[in-house]
């Protein structure tokens, strides 16, 4: 049968568009790929171009096309421009540095860079500038440098961007392009000017030496900018009544880099910046783009204060613009300048706060960040009010950041402790489930340090979770507080507001509810159980109830809870006497002496000595006789005061009578568990 | 810099960055389309890029024309407002090159769109913004291709010759008295 020629790209596209399902499309693609593969195998020059074009289309749809890579190289090596065009495009889309095959292009590119047809040279420059690897760039940098000096503006502008890519790949080669930059700015062609400014910008950003070297270009750049503004209508470069706004923006950016931290350069550009700032037509986006760039430059260089105020006021006007994009960029730049020009930005605070109510998410986010940056000691009350309102009504994606921001600002600028606690409470109750996990220990720390607010805090937290204990961070903080200050809660000691009447049982009710609730996370349950345990030393009537709860959880499925409960149970049993201890720096030790010999010990006296920083109190022993055969013990309680929390050490002396003789034992005890003295 | 066009049916992307695998590219397209298509009409044209598009330094800047979205992904070295203007220039250039460009033009002549974009953006940087300059260069290169086409190009040249003839509009319905003849839908010469 006569083989039909491969179908055209258009035909393929038409066919694929008729597919009604993904599966149908895949089938068509596979069929065509098979046809293309066999066509490739036939090494047919005529249709290679068409086949690769189809392959690129299928690649764009997401299908693998790697088997076309070598074919691209063959197309690049062809004599025809048509072939090269598709070949280079294919190379850019299908190849990158990871495939060794890309190096095979180097020779072709080298030849094409010297081709007699400028469009072929252009293709080569484009490809090299898009995806040339470091090796390729090293090999071909010389060719690029040559083309940077050509009088052909079409090639010169491409060579400039290609040079940028080369410099990015092989920074050491930057020096070699320096001579060619000498008269780049003398060009009349705007395309060349534009890409030249990009090249100069790249070099200045990379090397302080280059930056210093190119500062001398400031007057020339100022002149070019001036001509663009003053030149009047030029149909050649006009965009909405402004002459080449893209070039103006580029030049303004380069001026920014050159003027930064340099008084002389900044002065040289002062006038032109003022001129652009005051004369630019702002009815269209192009004007605003230039104005915006001017503002950024003014703010970044060492401009005089009058100019800076002018710039910030322009931004303030932008904030009131109907165009959302303008408002967005204004907020972005105000955010950048708020550190350096804080007071000037403060003047626009109310407009910024209004932006919190904008419908646009991007604008809201910017406004929120800026609002936080503007909070200070003077405006904290008003700003927090706005931000708390924002927290209430904003989208979920903002709540975590907003909550964190409020905590930070409150910590820095709280006018009073009461206000601070209230603000924390407000955040916890409003956005309690969005608060970050790490905020909980920080908040607990904060509350601990606000000693005079403990009663108020625990009361408010208690009331907050009574109604709703689903917000985990809120419940965690509340549980901890109740566990720590539960005594203040039940004794109704609150001064800041009307103290509530609540019994120990009611408190335990809520904590137990948290323990059982399905909504409670494991961590939260841990907090609740620990709180219940702590209340056993603060409550007086409900200790048995607490013991019961704790023992129940000794067999909890939750390993964390189980472990806690078991340890707490142990505390109840072994160290009961220690639990009633209200003074944490007093350690209570109970000694038990027993006698395994066949004769009793009499006149048993225990003595102990401790280091100087400690104080010792020995209470009366239970007896002075220890019966034989381990049939009885003497117990004695020692209280050790350890205000400096130093490691407890003790020298002990035992004296007694045994088998008719006086006995004495001396020993040092150094292995007290850390819990006893820390 | 990645430029993509999206419509309800098909998402097309042209990537001149070349560092990502096909899968990743498709993911990026999907994510971009998802982010952009749910944007309201009266919000700003800037979107912070999703997780796939390279982090917080990158933004999506887009413009909406009829059923098409033109999306540019840029980093902080580009002026956001300037990119909006650039997209406008790109669209106007497409319009000039395709003579009243429509969605179908972009779908069926993907390679041509690539070529136009290549005259505007190179290696992720803006190359040329003068529309007339770009169109001139494209025309010259297309002429070069045509001159190489030889026999295989003959039908194409005939087609473009017919296209340039001023044919009257083809009537869709011919009504004579109470006879109504529906004219069959002839394929266009495009």
Automatic annotation (TrEMBL), chain A:
Entry-linked Pfam families: Adaptin_N, Alpha_adaptinC2
Keyword Plastid: no
Domain GAE: 558-673
Subcellular location: Cytoplasmic vesicle membrane; Endomembrane system; Golgi apparatus
Keyword DNA-binding: no
GO cellular component terms attached to this protein's record: AP-1 adaptor complex
Swiss-Prot/TrEMBL keywords: Cytoplasmic vesicle, Golgi apparatus, Membrane, Protein transport, Transport
Membrane topology (UniProt): Peripheral membrane protein
The organism's place on the tree of life at top rank: Eukaryota
Biological process annotations from GO: intracellular protein transport; vesicle-mediated transport
InterPro entries reported for this sequence: Adaptor_Complx_Large_Subunit (IPR050840), AP1_complex_gsu (IPR017107), ARM-like (IPR011989), ARM-type_fold (IPR016024), Clathrin/coatomer_adapt-like_N (IPR002553), Clathrin_a/b/g-adaptin_app_Ig (IPR008152), Clathrin_app_Ig-like_sf (IPR013041), GAE_dom (IPR008153)
Recorded family membership: Belongs to the adaptor complexes large subunit family.
Alphabetized PANTHER family for the sequence: ADAPTIN, ALPHA/GAMMA/EPSILON (PTHR22780)
Stated name of the protein: AP-1 complex subunit gamma
Species of origin: Serinus canaria (Island canary)
Name of the gene encoding the protein in the UniProt record: AP1G1
Automatic annotation (TrEMBL), chain B:
Pfam families: Clat_adaptor_s
UniProt keywords, alphabetically: Cytoplasmic vesicle, Golgi apparatus, Membrane, Protein transport, Transport
Biological process (GO), any one: Golgi to vacuole transport
Topological relation to the membrane, as annotated: Peripheral membrane protein
Location of the region described as Disordered in the Swiss-Prot/TrEMBL record: 1-23
Subcellular location: Cytoplasmic vesicle membrane; Golgi apparatus
Protein's UniProt keywords contain Cytoplasm: no
Main localization, broad class: membrane
Start and end residues of each AP complex mu/sigma subunit domain: 21-144
Example of a GO cellular component annotation carried by this entry: cytoplasmic vesicle membrane
Protein transport listed as a keyword: yes
Annotated Gene3D superfamilies: 3.30.450.60
Source organism superkingdom: Eukaryota
Family as reported in the entry's similarity comment: Belongs to the adaptor complexes small subunit family.
Function comment: Part of the AP-3 complex, an adaptor-related complex which is not clathrin-associated. The complex is associated with the Golgi region as well as more peripheral structures. It facilitates the budding of vesicles from the Golgi membrane and may be directly involved in trafficking to lysosomes. In concert with the BLOC-1 complex, AP-3 is required to target cargos into vesicles assembled at cell bodies for delivery into neurites and nerve terminals.
Name the UniProt record assigns to this protein: Adaptor related protein complex 3 subunit sigma 1
């Amino acid at each position: 049968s006569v083989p039909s020629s491969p179908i055209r790209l258009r035909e393929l596209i038409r066919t694929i568009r008729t597919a009604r399902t993904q599966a149908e499309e895949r089938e068509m693609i596979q069929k065509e790929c098979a046809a293309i593969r066999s066509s490739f195998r036939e090494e047919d020059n005529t249709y290679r171009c068409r086949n690769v074009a189809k392959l690129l289309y299928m690649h764009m749809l997401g299908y693998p096309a790697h088997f076309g890579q070598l074919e691209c190289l063959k197309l690049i090596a062809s004599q025809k421009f048509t072939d090269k065009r598709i070949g280079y495009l294919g190379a850019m889309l299908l190849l990158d540095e990871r495939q060794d095959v890309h190096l095979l292009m180097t020779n072709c590119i080298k030849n094409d860079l010297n081709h007699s047809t400028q469009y072929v040279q252009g293709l080569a420059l484009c490809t090299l500038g898009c995806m040339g690897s470091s090796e390729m760039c090293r090999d071909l940098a010389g060719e690029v440098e040559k083309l940077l000096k050509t009088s052909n503006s079409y090639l010169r502008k491409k060579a400039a961007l290609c040079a940028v890519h080369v410099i990015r790949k092989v920074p050491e080669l930057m020096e070699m392009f320096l001579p060619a930059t000498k008269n780049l700015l003398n060009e009349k062609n705007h395309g060349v000017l534009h890409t030249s400014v990009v090249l100069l910008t790249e070099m200045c950003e990379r090397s302080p030496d280059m930056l210093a070297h190119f500062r001398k270009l400031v007057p020339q750049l100022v002149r070019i900018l001036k001509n663009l503004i003053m030149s009047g209508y030029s149909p050649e470069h006009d965009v909405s009544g402004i002459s080449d706004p893209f070039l103006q923006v580029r030049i303004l950016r380069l001026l920014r880099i050159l003027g930064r931290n340099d008084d002389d350069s900044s002065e040289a550009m002062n006038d032109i910046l003022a001129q652009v700032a005051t004369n630019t037509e702002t009815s269209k986006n192009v004007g605003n783009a230039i104005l915006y760039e001017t503002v950024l430059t003014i703010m970044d260089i060492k401009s005089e204060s009058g100019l800076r105020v002018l710039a910030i006021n322009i931004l303030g006007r932008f904030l009131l613009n109907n165009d959302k994009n303008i408002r967005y960029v204004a907020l972005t730049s105000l955010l950048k300048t708020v550190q350096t020009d804080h007071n000037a930005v403060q003047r626009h605070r109310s407009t910024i706060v209004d932006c919190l109510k904008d419908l646009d998410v991007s604008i809201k986010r910017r406004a929120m960040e800026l609002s936080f940056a503007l909070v200070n000691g003077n405006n904290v009350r008003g700003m927090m009010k706005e931000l708390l309102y924002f927290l209430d009504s904003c989208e979920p994606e903002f709540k975590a950041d907003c909550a964190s921001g409020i905590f930070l600002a409150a910590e820095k600028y709280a006018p009073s402790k009461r206000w601070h606690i209230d603000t924390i409470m407000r955040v916890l109750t409003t956005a309690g489930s969005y608060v970050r996990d790490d905020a909980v220990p920080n908040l607990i720390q904060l509350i601990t340090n606000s000693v005079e607010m403990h009663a108020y805090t625990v009361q408010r937290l208690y009331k907050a979770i009574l109604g709703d204990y689903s917000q985990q961070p809120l419940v965690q903080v509340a549980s901890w507080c109740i566990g720590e200050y539960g005594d203040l809660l039940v004794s109704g000691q609150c001064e800041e507001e009307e103290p509530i009447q609540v019994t120990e049982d009611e408190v335990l009710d809520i904590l137990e509810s948290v323990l059982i609730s399905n909504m409670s996370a494991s961590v939260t349950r841990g907090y609740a159980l620990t709180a219940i345990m702590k209340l056993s030393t603060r409550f007086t009537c409900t200790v048995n109830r607490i013991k019961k709860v704790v023992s129940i959880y000794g067999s909890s499925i939750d390993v964390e809870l189980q472990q806690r409960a078991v340890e707490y149970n142990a505390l109840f049993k072994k160290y009961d006497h220690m639990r009633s201890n209200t003074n944490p720096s007093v350690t209570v030790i109970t000694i038990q002496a027993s006698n395994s010999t066949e004769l009793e010990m009499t006149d048993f006296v225990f003595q102990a000595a401790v280091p100087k920083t400690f104080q010792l109190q020995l209470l009366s022993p239970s007896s002075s006789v220890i019966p034989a055969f381990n049939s009885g013990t003497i117990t004695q309680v020692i209280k050790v005061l350890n205000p400096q929390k130093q490691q407890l050490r003790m020298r002990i002396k035992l004296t007694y009578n045994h088998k008719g003789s006086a006995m004495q034992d001396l020993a040092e005890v150094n292995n007290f568990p850390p819990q006893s003295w820390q | 810099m990645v430029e993509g066009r999206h419509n309800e049916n098909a998402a097309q992307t042209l990537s001149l960055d070349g560092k990502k695998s096909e899968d990743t590219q498709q993911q990026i397209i999907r994510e971009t389309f998802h982010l952009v298509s749910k944007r309201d009409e009266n919000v700003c044209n800037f979107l912070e890029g999703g997780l796939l598009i390279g982090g917080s330094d990158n933004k999506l800047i887009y413009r909406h024309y009829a059923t098409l979205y033109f999306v540019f992904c840029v980093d902080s070295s580009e002026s956001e407002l300037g990119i909006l203007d650039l997209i406008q220039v790109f669209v106007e250039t497409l319009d000039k090159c395709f003579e009243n460009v429509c969605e179908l033009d972009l779908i069926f002549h993907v390679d041509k769109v690539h070529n136009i974009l290549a005259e505007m953006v190179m290696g992720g940087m803006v190359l040329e913004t003068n529309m007339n300059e770009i169109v001139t260069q494209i025309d010259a290169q297309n002429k070069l291709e045509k001159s190489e086409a030889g026999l295989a190009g003959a039908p194409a040249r005939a087609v473009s010759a017919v296209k340039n003839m001023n044919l009257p509009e083809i009537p869709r319905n011919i009504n004579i008295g109470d006879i109504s003849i529906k004219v069959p839908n002839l394929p266009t010469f495009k």
